[in-house]
Amino acid sequence: MIDLKGKVAVVGYGESLIGKYPSKTTRELALEVAKMAIEKAGISKKEIDGVITTHSFGDPEYTADSGIGVISTELGIYPKFHTHIFSGGATTCVSLKMIAGMIYTGQLNAALIIAADNWGSAPLELMIDFMATTNHPEWEVPYGFYMNGALALMTRRYMYETGTTPEQLASVCVSNRKWAALKPNAMFRKPLTIDEVLRSKMVCEPLHAFECNVLADGAAALLVTSAQRARELISTPVYILGMGGQFASSFKCQTADITTYGLKEAGKAAYQMAEITPKDVDIAELYDAYSVIPLISLEDLGLCARGKAGKFVQEGHTWPGGDLPMTTNGGMLSQGHAGVGGGMLLHVEAVQQLMGKAESERQVNGAQIALVTGSSGIWNDGQVIIYGREVS
């Protein structure tokens, strides 16, 4: 395996307001965050020779035209490498792996990765159709199985195997909301209690409304280059220390164990490349979308013992000031789920925290290492990226 530890770094990032902004097109959101990332990096557009754009759930026009370079053209960038890829919530992790390898082998100097969506403002009928047809077309869709149903099934099985309580699941929402309350561009910032979560509408037993992600408009971008060039550009580059990934299955009807999705193997590979252990992680930016996912992630990544994550979160260890700050932007449960951008926002948050650029109340002081997860589809795979302020 090629050792990419510390060879590539993030030098710029951008994130938009997250919410419902029907007056803004997905393309406008993409251009907005791309310009932010370029400005923060202080890099010439001529030096950016790689651009990756990705899918939009809510805007078919963006998905069609961005794949042939419209965003690059409007930015005034004419790269050697341009592609349009999609791997669901794992897209940013996959993009970073691709770009890191190309930079390491000298094929690229610097690359821009952009994710944008406006599915918060998309027609309701379009989103209902999407959520209802994401599952297996032969063995799941005809029987009414849909996204919330799949996650309800995962949640109920996880509760049965671990003894996790409804209150502990609800505490994930409370933890995320505490962080979102400190983030100005989050969609939901009003304080939330466990009781309020459990009193919210039952969507699909045992999932309540506050335990399900909220569709939003928004965008995020990262600018990546070699470690050497990064140190010339800015004083606080953030290095990619480790990467790992593992495919689990395409659909829930084909999954041997629905309480896991590849993060154990992905985490081991990322830890090995970064030469760290779970105890070295200062911040865990865990892909959420539903309350059970961070609990499974904490356990599969070795950050908590099996069946102990719910108690860990409920006791406040992941809250501001806790032992292991988790999903410090509020995640898709509170900041909002901006499609593929929802996954990238976790990477932006990790970079911002390690650069020391988060708002004062939200900044995790002294953080050196941040771990970010991602997953595609209905948790078809586990992806892990480990970032660090320094390379030891």
Describe the fold and architecture.
The model has no long low-confidence stretch (mean pLDDT 94). It contains 14 helices and eleven strands. The chain has a domain at 8-122 and 215-233: Peroxisomal Thiolase, Chain A, domain 1. The radius of gyration is 19 Å and the shape is globular. Strand 5 and strand 6 form a beta hairpin. The chain has helices at 26-41, 60-66, 70-75, 91-104, 124-133, 147-162, 166-180, 194-199, 227-233, 263-274, 292-300, 309-314, 331-334, 340-355; strands at residues 8-15, 50-54, 81-85, 110-118, 202-204, 207-208, 217-226, 238-247, 283-285, 369-374, 381-388. Strands 3-2-4-7-1-8-11-10-9 form a nine-stranded mixed sheet. The chain is α/β, with parallel strands linked by helices and 392 residues long.
Mean pLDDT: 94
Query: Low-confidence parts, pLDDT < 50 over ≥5 residues?
Result: none
- Taking strands numbered 1, 2, ... along the chain, how are they ordered across the largest sheet? 3-2-4-7-1-8-11-10-9
* Largest sheet features: 9 strands, mixed
Radius of gyration: 19 Å
CATH homology-level superfamily of the domain at 8-122 and 215-233 = Thiolase/Chalcone synthase
Helicity level, as a percent range? 25-40%
Order of helices and strands: EHEHHEHEHHHHEEEHEHEHHHHEE
Number of helices: 14
Query: How does CATH name the architecture of the domain at 8-122 and 215-233?
Result: 3-Layer(aba) Sandwich
Structural class: alpha/beta
Per CATH, the class of the domain at 8-122 and 215-233 reads Alpha Beta
* CATH fold call of the domain at 8-122 and 215-233: Peroxisomal Thiolase, Chain A, domain 1
Number of strands: 11
- The dominant shape is globular
Q: Note the gap between the termini.
A: 19 Å
Range of strand content? 15-25%
